[in-house]
Amino acid sequence: MGRGSQLTEPGRQADGVYTWEEVQRHCNRNDQWLVINRKVYNITQWAKRHPGGFRVIGHYAGEDATEPFTAFHPDSKFVQKFLKPLLIGELAATEPSHDGNKNAAIMQDFQALRTQAENEGLFRSQPLFFSLHLGHILLLDALAWLMVSHWGTSWTMTFLCAVILATAQSQAGWLQHDFGHLSVFKKSSWNHLVHKFVIGHLKGASANWWNHRHFQHHAKPNVFTKDPDINMMDMFVLGTTQPVEYGIKKIKSLPYNHQHQYFHLIAPPLLLPVFYHINIVQTMISHRLWVDLAWFMSYYVRFMYFYVPLYGVFGSMGLLLFVRFLESHWFVWVTQMNHLPMEIDHEKHRDWLSIQLQATCNIEQSFFNDWFSGHLNFQIEHHLFPTMPRHNYYLVAPRVRALCKKHGIPYQEKTLWRGFADITESLKSSGDLWLDAYLHK
Predict the structure, then answer these.
(1) Residue 156: its pLDDT value, please?
(2) What is the pLDDT of residue 11?
(3) Closest CA to 230 of 156, 340, 121, 311
(4) pLDDT value at position 7?
(5) Where are the beta strands (DSSP E) in 117-242?
(6) Rounded to whole angstroms, how far apart are CA atoms 333 and 341?
(7) What is the pLDDT at residue 4?
(8) Dihedral of the CA atoms 143, 144, 146, 147 (nearest 10)?
């Protein structure tokens, strides 16, 4: 449309008019444009300073990012001051507001649902809920230490102590998730501060590591090369597409037809104590995240201060490793039951509702399921509204279900045990596809 080849420098008057074809040409790491509410932005330099990381914003380069922008930023007016210098123009009047395979009717109806939820206060948190949740974590932490300090360090007491500590760690994991998604306080800065305390001091992990990893998962769930949660480092093949691709290419890093069996020996016991721990330490050091490192170290100093007098240095390290081992099982089964059995494929450029529903499913509501999963049994609602406080998911769920029914989008809900079983069954199904392709294609 005449000005598509111009690159407006940040700060200049934005007067370009562009077609989708022109926008879509700027989709590589060194040249990135995106569209928000029909406005075209050059984010090439800004991506490096993006608080959520350069990858998550880069995943929408060359696309309409209106829906994820709205989903991730609770205070859009505040963010506008960062967007303004990046503005280079707008879409031509003849161009649609969306790109790719995105359904305009679905997008319009979903925006109406979001507006309705905002007007009804479903994005306002209840301080008492999160205070009680934090209180029960601290209580469990204290109870574990009091047990072994008063009743001794027998094998029985040590095992009970580890179970209680693992429970506290798992629940702290769900709590840090709330603050990381900016769903507790109105001010983002308060959420970020408490997030560092919970994930750093209460859990011994890194807020920045979590942010940069987890927001990619939310932006493009179950999309190869964009969702880090499905980067299995050739240990597993997932979905229906990847197994066939690996089979045709004769890739056999492991006997994938047995992955549903060796999964139990690798993922649940090792993800947190080995893979994540190494990745967190490497990330903090390589990216010089010294504040995160200080919070991270404070957890281990506190743990050793209380348990070394009871177990000695090596005994305390063994206890901590066993706690991580237990917590890792809890974490893997809960987080994978909502995603692993769902569609896992390459980028298809779908609208927000469609991409989230095809990559997520729910687990039936109950008091136990809510507590056990940190309300991630409402994974669909969480993915659609990541900044919504989790205690409101059940209120918006019936409306999401009705919207999906209107547009013919499957809304899956399972029992907890069915969700667990589907993890293994989906791995077996993918492994069988790989074997067939490996032998016959």
Answers:
(1) 97
(2) 36
(3) 340
(4) 44
(5) none
(6) 12
(7) 43
(8) 110
